[in-house]
Amino acid sequence: MKIAWFTPFHRKSAIGKVSQAVTRELARSQQVDIWTADEENLHETSLRVVRFGGLSSHVKWLKEYDLVVYNLGNHYPNHGRIFQTSLQHSGVVVLHDFVMHHFLMGHYLGNRLFQEYSDAMRRWYGADVPVAEGGWTGPLFRVWERDAEVVQYPLFEEVLRGAKAVIVHSDFLRQRVERATGLPTATIHLAWEAERRAATRSRADLGIAEGRVLIVTVGDVNENKRSEAMLRVLGAHAEIASVVCYVVVGACDTPFAERMQALCRELKLEQTVRFTGYADDDSLNDWLTHADFCVNLRWPAMEGGSASSAIQMLLGKASIVTDTGVYTELPDECVLKVRPDHELEDLASHLRTLIRDRELRQKIGDAAGRFASANFSPATYARKFLEFATALAAYEPAYRLSNTVAAELRAMGVSPEMAIIDTVAREGATILDGDYDAPVLRKYTLRGRPIA
Amino acid sequence: MRVIVASTIAPFIEGGSTFIVDWLEQTLREFGHDVDVLKIPFYSYYPEMPAQMLALRLMDVAAHGDRLIAIRTPAYLLRHPNKVLWFIHHHRGAYDLWGTPYQDLPDAPVGRAYRRAIVSADHLAFSEARHIYTNSAVVSKRLKDFNDVDSEVLYPPVLKPQRFHARSYGDYILYVSRIVHHKRQSLAVEAMRYTRTPVKLVVAGKADDPGLESQLRQTVQQHGLQDKVTLDFRWISEEQKVEYLADCLAAIYIPFDEDSYGYPSLEAHHARKAVISATDSGGTSELIRDGNNGFLADPDPRAIAECMDRLYLDPKLARDMGENGLERIRELGITWERVMEKLLA
Amino acid sequence: MKIAILTNCVPFVRGGAEHLAESLRDKLNEYGHEAMITRIPLAWHPPERIVEHILAARLLRLHNVDRMIGLKFPAFYVRHDNKIHWLLHQFRQVYDLWGTKYQDIPDTPEGRRIREVVVNADNQYLPEARRIYTISRNSAERLKKFNNLDAEVLYHPLGKSDHFRCDSYGDYLFCPSRVTDGKRQALLTESMKYVRSGVRLVLAGQPETPADRERVEAIMRENRLEKRVQWIPRFISEDEKVGLFAGALGCAYIPYDEDTYGYVTLESYHSRKPVITCRDSGDTLVLVRDGQTGLVAEPTPAAIAGAMDNLYECRGQAERMGQAGYDLMMTLGINWETVVKRLTA
User: Fold this and answer.
1) What DSSP string runs through A61-103?
2) C154, C183, C208 — which closes off a domain?
3) Would B60 be classed as within a structural domain?
4) d(Cα A351, Cα A243) in Å, to the nearest integer?
5) Last residue of one domain, picked from the residues C154, C185, C211
6) What pLDDT tens digit does each residue of chain C (345 aa) get?
7) Complete domains list, chain A, with CATH
8) Which of A18, A415, B67, C86 makes the best surface tag, with the fewest CB within 10 Å?
9) What are phi and psi of C172, to 5 degrees?
10) Signed CA dihedral, A177, A183, A187, A192: sign only
11) Whether the predicted pLDDT of A140 surpasses 80
């Protein structure tokens, strides 16, 4: 198969890194071209890289490929052009995030497409959605600024308009995608290159006090990662705070991050907690290598998969995660889970456990390592990806028929309650021997899916 | 009875099914039935087939007519409580031609998916039919082998067979048919290089491809066969055909691997003339028994020339074989009475 | 050009549309094109079928066709990139017949949705044609009013017209037509009561129902019109019709509010005979100009009788008006040359 793999590919992109490894594996048996809108400072690869960022009529070249793959994540600068291409030439979408609202806001906000935004919100969530009132001036209620709100309006449905099939990295997201769209969807564990490199600096170099248990959290400091929870627990339990060194590795230059740093000072945790700011790969590797265990909390779940968990598990580290979203699917032997409604309590309890019980820490870490090697390898990802892509072919007649019929029914203004939907689904299923689904036609194709 | 005859057509492309549909319509009327014919355009390009098949399922004629007779694939997808199939061929690219250079679906996952869709739709239609008839044993066998479906052979007769007659057994062998590569008129002309008697050959019919006509002319020129071979490259009317057959010594019909015996063979027999065919002509062997009502020669110019000479030298043989031909038609029940009886049962 | 004429059908029902399609096909072939008719089933009970048949039309695929001519709903929705429509009429049940007893679709939420779909389909798909013609002004007006689409009137000619002739201007008025309530032969017969001249009436046509038959016969009986009115109560042959026109003084044709003029007026003009019609006869008035090509009377027996007497009293006038009628037909372009030219442009 000839595959066009659309992805962000600059070095700072984690999805780019995943793509680098997966395409390398795919290229062992298929012909793979990487398509990216990024111009420079790209991940290394021996594959052909098509920089389509400056092109406007590149879509016509996609006809030459047997399969076109679009990696989409909740970040407009990285994925905007990829998404636009998918609307003109449908393909398999690898959906990295559950919440894609911010991504779409990047598009709508950037292009002042207020009507498009309202239409999309209403299309998927009904007429009573809280869309921004008053246009761009005047008092606004911004759904996307509140995590608790935005997870109710994830808008991933809207970005899948160019998808003929979807790959996600958790069953959590797969169920939601299938229910909303009826598209063939597969769960494949997110892949990550297992690279155990020796640390370049020692614990002492990093300034970690002798005898302290090093706990690491990786990622940009934001509300979703529950930094506040850790600080509160450490603040409330001096006996924990006094024996650990908690390091938050990730950009911390936002107002929120500054508030966290202020909270830290307020709780008198300067000796315990450190914010490193943005860390490059080597630095990150140092911290993780030396970490005794990791804390990787999220609330509410917005991702479709967790690269940070993958990295930590591949390094054989035990970690504490929130029992939600993709993290729920990690085996209990490999991670300790915190119940969202008992967050501080469970967090304190797990911290004590892992601090006290070195052997358990090791056991969990090893289990995590084994699970990760088996499931997060790029080779496994590539293999499962190819299995899915091949199986998709079986769906092609139904997919094409569905699109053709849906386009005509939309053009003549058929509404979803009309009897024709069930009639077509029934007759379509009898001709295609069961590969056809009325809910698919009703829900997704009538709601604005473009013609393949 | 009120009978709907339904078939698919490829617009403006002549095909074998045109005759069976039109002649069935005419004969049904002659027998006093009310007929309406539906000819639905169908484009056999595989990615567009499911949508058209769905169109056939949506068309509602179920409340009309006492019977629906569906002929060319996939007209039989039309729903009707009294559906009878007179099945003439599959979408062969998905069946017996799959795995040959003639398969029209790619042997890749997507092509295989469409192939499954075609087969699945066929199965649906077969399960809905009251009776399934075919036009030859070859096709019945394919239905059994590929779809595990039982069918009865119902040979298609020619229209108004009483038009044909024998006036004399002259000196020419007649090949009247569309001039097309696989009908192998070229082989018949080649054979004339090896005949030893004054027997002649008349090739009558129109070619879609003028290149074929010039090729045949060239062969005649090249081998100095102008006195022996007449090339009549016109569209031959029914009347002309009757005339040609009335005075020929015998007919020749040597297509490559056709499913059915072909109307030309039948017409020749109605005119009480023997038919020279080939061992690899396919369905003609259901009609022609070698040495009885014609010959099944090796597809080789010399072997064919021999048959031609034999008939020329033995006019009684030519006559007897011709009579046997007519008898063979009766034996096989290739009559409209039988067709009416079966299709309207 | 290879031309496909698309029209709908209800199996076993043959009407004006079938005649028109066949005439069009034959004329296109005469003018050197290759034309074929594709008839697609239409069902509208239950109303859900309407949407199914619109979709079925959209899913068909016309391959190897240079030009498509759409005549009726939903056949004119079939996809093709070179369409010209010659609309007989739309699915009027959702337009001017909505709100009357002819609307055929129940006024329920689902029924209204179905109605909307038909209107949307017309709005979306009719403009796919490069040009739209209609056979009547009424059709064109409705298209403009309901769908804001511009269409030109292209009158439909008689299928065959060169066999009509004029022998003489006799003493009878001729009315050839199926006998129905709408065609108002009863009114015509009743008018004979008031006639003062020697003019007679000849009716030819099958009564649609026994009630229609009885109605006319009763009037004849009660008014003792047997000597003045002759009724041939059956379908007459073409020859008979031509003969009766040839010797007639003129034609009397007074249907109630016809949407599209029928063939009768054309037949009369081809025979050079004037036409008596009524003010409320609908589209027939396109063809009949009062005092020039015939007479237009109030729809009362006395007024009609007056027109009949008028015509009888002046044979010269009849002849003049008959010729003028023929000329009007030509002026209006009611001939196949015009039709073929427009539809193959």
Assistant:
1) GGGG-SEEEEEE-S-HHHHHHHHHHHHHS-EEEEE-BS--HHH
2) C154
3) yes
4) 11
5) C154
6) 999 999 999 999 887 889 899 999 999 999 999 999 999 999 999 999 999 999 999 999 999 999 999 999 999 999 999 999 999 989 999 999 999 988 889 999 999 999 999 999 999 999 999 999 999 999 999 999 999 999 999 999 998 899 999 999 999 999 999 899 899 999 999 999 999 999 999 999 989 889 999 999 999 999 999 999 999 988 899 999 999 999 999 999 999 999 888 899 999 999 999 999 999 999 999 999 999 999 999 999 999 999 999 999 988 999 999 999 999 999 999 999 999 999 999
7) 2-187 (3.40.50.11930), 213-376 (3.40.50.2000), 398-447 (no CATH)
8) A415
9) -125, 150
10) negative
11) no
Q: Kindly list the residues from chain A whose CB atom is less than 8 angstroms away from the CB atom of residue B43.
A: none
224-253 in C: which are within 8 Å (CB) of A?
A: none
Q: Three-state SS for A235?
A: helix
- Closest by Cα among B66, B56, B80 to B7: B56
Q: For residue C222, how many C-alpha atoms fall within 13 Å in the half-sphere facing its CB?
A: 10
pLDDT at A141: 59
Nearest CA in chain C to B57: C56
The parent domain of residue B143 ranges over: 2-154
Residues B51 and B192 in one domain: no
Residues B222, B324, single domain; the answer is yes
Yes or no, beta carbons of A405 and B54 under 8 Å apart: yes
Q: Does residue C160 sit within a domain?
A: no
Whether B60 and C55 lie within 8 Å, measured CB to CB: no
* C11/B52 touch (CB, cutoff 8 Å), yes or no: no
Q: The tokens 């598209």 sit on which residue?
A: A183
Query: Helices B137-147 and B109-128 sit at what angle, rounded to 10 degrees?
Result: 110
Classify residue C165: in a domain, yes or no: no
pLDDT exceeds cutoff 50 at A446? no
Q: How many interchain CB pairs under 8 A, A with B?
A: 55
Residue B216 distance to chain A (closest CA, Å)? 43
Indicate which CATH number applies to the domain containing B259: 3.40.50.2000
Residue at B288 is within a domain: yes
Which chain B residues have a beta carbon less than 8 Å from that of C65? Answer: 11-12, 41
User: In this predicted structure, what is the pLDDT of residue A136?
Assistant: 45
Do C135 and C235 reside in the same domain of the chain? no
Q: Looking at B100, B122, B154, which one is the last position of a domain?
A: B154
Whether residue A114 contacts residue A136, with contact meaning beta carbons closer than 8 Å, is answered with yes
- Kindly state the average pLDDT of the residues B106-131: 92
Q: Residue A196 — very low, low, confident or very high, per pLDDT cuts 50/70/90?
A: confident
Q: Tell me, yes or no, whether B344 lies in a domain.
A: no
Kindly state whether residues B77 and B202 are assigned to the same domain: no
**Per the structure, how many domains does chain C have?**
2
* Domain CATH number, residue C196: 3.40.50.2000
To probe the interface with A, which of C44, C45, C48, C51 has the most A CB atoms within 10 Å? C51
Q: Nearest chain C Cα to B50, which residue?
A: C59
Shared domain check, C70 and C41: yes
Residue B340, in any domain of the structure: no
Instruction: Tell me which residue range forms the domain holding C82.
Output: 2-154
User: With bands split at pLDDT 50, 70 and 90, how would you rate the model's confidence at A437?
Assistant: low
What is the tally of structural domains in chain B? Answer: 2
The answer to whether position C181 is within a domain reads yes
B110 closest CB neighbour out of A396, A404, A430: A396
What 3-state class would DSSP assign to C320? helix
CA C98 to chain centre: 22
DSSP assignment string, A17-49: HHHHHHHHHHTTTSEEEEEES--SSBPP-SSEE
ipTM for the predicted complex: 0.90
pTM of the model: 0.82
Distance (Å) from the alpha carbon of C259 to chain A's nearest alpha carbon:
27
**Do residues B296 and B284 make contact, with C-beta atoms less than 8 angstroms apart?**
yes
What pLDDT score does A181 carry?
81
Question: What subunits touch chain B, counting only 3 or more CB pairs under 8 A?
Answer: A, C
- Closest among C183, C187, C205 to C305, alpha carbons compared: C187
